[in-house]
Design brief:
- It is a single chain.
- Helix content is 97%, strand content 0%.
- By secondary structure, the protein is mostly helical.
- The radius of gyration is 28 Å and the shape is rod-shaped.
Amino acid sequence: MKLAYEVSRRVHQWKKEKKELNLFKHYTHNLRINNYLCSLVHQGKNEQKEKQYKKERKGIYLNTA
């Protein structure tokens, strides 16, 4: 009887750990997707800032020439 109880307890513990691991995998996967999307947004913003900066610099050079 004691052995059956120990086996069922370990199976329950194993299932709990497996569930937690799957949740962690989903969480990290979503985090990676989120980080990728954020990097794309920042990349787009940086490109816009760079274009704006080049326009401003071009205007400065044209005004001084």
